[in-house]
Specification:
There is one protein chain. The chain is mostly helical. It has a domain of 65 residues. The protein is built from five helices and two strands. A two-stranded antiparallel ribbon has the order 1-2. β1 and β2 form a beta hairpin. α1 packs across α2, α2 packs antiparallel against α3 and α2 packs antiparallel against α5. The longest helix has 22 residues. The relative contact order is 0.13. InterPro entries: Glyco_hydro_24 (IPR002196), Lysozyme-like_dom_sf (IPR023346), Lysozyme_dom_sf (IPR023347). One of its GO terms (biological process) is killing of cells of another organism. It comes from Dentiscutata erythropus. Pfam families: Phage_lysozyme (PF00959). One of its GO terms (molecular function) is lysozyme activity.
Amino acid sequence: MEPMSLKVSLNNFKNKLSEFEGYVKKYVKKSLNSDQFDALVSFAYNTGEGAIKSVANIINSKGFSEVRSEMAKYNKVTIEENGKERKVVSPVLANRRKFEADMFDSKIKSCPKVSQNCNGGCKK
């Protein structure tokens, strides 16, 4: 995987945004505020349909209190050592999940290292 610039990353996100918004709308049956919706769309974009479905099941059955711990489960990468694969915690993914959970809990007031013109996201 090659690193990508912020501009390329935002363009990729914009191009696929409706797909991931659709997953959140399809699976989450409870009302969400804009921070919660945005956080779940970001989470879905970064983890895929299966992960957002899992988080949505938690929301639908248990409410919002366990969203942070469910999101945190998606913090691992697969590495190969001695011909065997194993999952290890990625500090980068752990930080991303924390950011998304903080956004879900309305604790984020601005996007770190992103101009205030980040497609309307992350601004209060």
